[in-house]
């Protein structure tokens, strides 16, 4: 897989060098992530119907909105996508998606995907029921896997070793997929990690079973992306402002050849370590890459196509990320984007929401 990844990146870079590809012609898309469309839900994960309409109006004028299935299959088959392609996704089957988001999406004739927990549908007051899900499916929506329960998947049960944990959580994903197939008649094998949390064994196990994984980190997607944890831009709360969102909507996939270390799960005692990216440079000046941790610019060390930084894990449970950006040489005003997440449990092994 890694060798294929490197060959693809080199092939793309050769086309760049020969002038056969510009940034607009490279396989590239942006996936947006929403949760609530409501005025009555937590602001950090919500957009109001008015703001959501603003987003859709902007997309209709400046972007091509395609189904997630079309984009993923095109990227996997290395087929071209329209410039500035965008996908709309939601996590969790909240009823306000049906009540507030779906009518607007129908008005704009935009496809979208909702990642749901099948056992919660019709059984929890704030969730949609199956009749609503099926109506939406008949009117432009698709539905995919978010697990049986909205749990922290990295939580180990008492006396559970890693293999037992992995077998249990993979079985949970498979059960949810079977339920979706039973209710809807299709199985996409797309899985969005609850809370965006995953580790390397889980990601690799799902990839081996044919799943495409979706994370909650920033960045565009391309045929050389990590299909075990594809980035999606949050578009709610603080991130819903159209001025900042338009930069992300126009972003490009950072041509990263490798990262080290790859394991995103940390502990409270993980010491500071060196994080390294190898980046193809044909449309990027490595000296123009900026990396941020908790919105703070961090110093970089450059050597050839490699950049590295010292990452200091926070000594409290929660989620951190490194975000790196660089301006495109050919496409003025557009930025390459890369994000690496880190997940740290509490001392008792539990995870914070």
What is the structure about, briefly put?
The chain has 353 residues and is α/β, with parallel strands linked by helices. It has helices at 2-17, 49-62, 68-76, 95-107, 130-137, 162-184, 200-208, 242-249; strands spanning 29-34, 36-37, 46-47, 64-65, 85-91, 112-116, 141-145, 190-192, 212-214, 233-234, 252-253, 256-260, 273-279, 290-293, 296-297, 301-303, 306-311, 318-327, 335-344.
**Helix-strand string:** HEEEHEHEHEHEHEHEEHEEEEEEEEE
Helicity level: 25-40%
Find the count of extended strands (DSSP E, 2+ residues).
Answer: 19
Summarize the biggest pleated sheet.
6 strands, parallel
According to CATH, the homologous superfamily of the largest domain is Glycoside hydrolase/deacetylase
For the termini, the CA-CA separation is: 33 Å
Strand content: 15-25%
Number of domains: 2
CATH topology of the largest domain: TIM Barrel
In words, what does this structure look like?
Strands 1, 4, 5, 6, 7 and 10 form a six-stranded parallel beta sheet that branches. A five-stranded mixed beta sheet has the order 11-19-18-14-15, with no helix packed on it. The chain has helices at residues 2-17, 49-62, 68-76, 95-107, 130-137, 162-184, 200-208, 242-249; strands spanning 29-34, 36-37, 46-47, 64-65, 85-91, 112-116, 141-145, 190-192, 212-214, 233-234, 252-253, 256-260, 273-279, 290-293, 296-297, 301-303, 306-311, 318-327, 335-344. Strand 14 (290-293) and strand 15 (296-297) form a beta hairpin. The chain is 28% helix and 24% strand. The chain folds into two domains: 2-251, Alpha-Beta Barrel (TIM Barrel), CATH 3.20.20; 258-344, Sandwich (Immunoglobulin-like), CATH 2.60.40.1220. The model is unreliable at 1-25 (pLDDT under 50). It is α/β, with parallel strands linked by helices. Helix 2 runs parallel beside helix 4. The two termini are 33 Å apart.
